[in-house]
Amino acid sequence: MSNLPVELLHSIAAAVETTPALLQLRLVSKTLNVVATPLAFRVITVNDSVKSADALSFLQGSDGSVASAVREVRFEGDLEEEQWTGENETSGEAGRQALRAAFSRLAKFANLERLRFDFHGFFQEDTQEISNTPTHFLRLQLDIFAALAAGLPPPRLVSLTLNNVLAVPAAIYAQPAFHAFLSRLYTFELSVLCEAEPEGAYLEMPLGEFFASSVAHMLRSVTAVRYLALRSSSERGHPVGHCPVIPFGDTRLPHLAALTLEGFALQPATREYDAAAFVVAHAATLAHLELCGCTIDGGGAVHFPRPWGAVLALFEAELVGLRTFAFTADPGGVDSGLRDPRFAYTWLEVDWGYLPMEEAVEGEEGDLPALESLMAAVKARALSDAGEDVE
User: Fold this and answer.
1) pTM for the whole thing?
2) 30-40 and 6-15 are packed helices; what angle lies between their axes, rounded to 10 degrees?
3) Where are the domains of the chain?
4) How far is CA 332 from CA 22, 117, 271, 285, 294, in A?
5) What end-to-end distance do the CA atoms of the chain give, in Å?
């Protein structure tokens, strides 16, 4: 084996698909150990346990050839609530302490570029008030965020994905150290998890404060970001953008080139909270835009002064640098049968929540033509950039 060309050994190692197999391959020869090590440790997966946290800490103290190979660290929680029957089945205080220690030392991975947290996929907090006894699941998230803020940042870290962040406001989001950690990122993806009941829970604390304060703090922190993705709990039928709101205000991300919004209600009553205005404010840099499961909301008055056609026409006129545009329906949304599900309209019943609009909306006949016009303009720009003729 040691007599084989190094190029062939690289090809052999690259063809191995699983980390355990790569670890076994390292034992075959010294040469394969050198070749396989960077592949075996390029992605490290951690879960909610003391054993897993200790393993991450062990790697941080390993020799340079291993620690320097790490490019991505992933935390994987449990996505199904049935996997837990009580707090006694979690890692508890010991697990949180071990994970906090490990995540505060990420700078040991000198070449770490990406962090991804897929937190537990269920919500057990009190939706009516901020509890003095948060669950393990909320404490786990806050402990990890505190660790990221407290430790030295990995020098090459550019990407952070936070999935299933519990919609509970906390002081960590406003702390300068957490702001500093976020300010270095080029890619930031945030998805929020809540357990909003349909009967007006979006008007209650702490959910509204989380979006209005905590999310706003994070948004103002990612000043170097090139790609931003914001996803509400749209799979539960509760978009964000009208109630609750994100106060975009004068927030500007000077390098933003790509933006994804999922589960947003576009409602232009107040410009400070208008997601469409936030999009247009980045016309100078924005090249890629994706809207998934978004809706035009008519509020309690069921009034739609700016239908989808007007929003899309605004994008065509203002986003002159746009080169790709994706516009998709909520896969779990209710299809009224009255219109293309991509052009969703809702109205807000305070005592019930967001409801699909099951009647015709004035001006919606212009929605599809406006989309087709925008898509044609975007395609023409992309073809022009490539030096191809526009048909």
Assistant:
1) 0.88
2) 40
3) 6-297
4) 39, 24, 29, 32, 12
5) 57
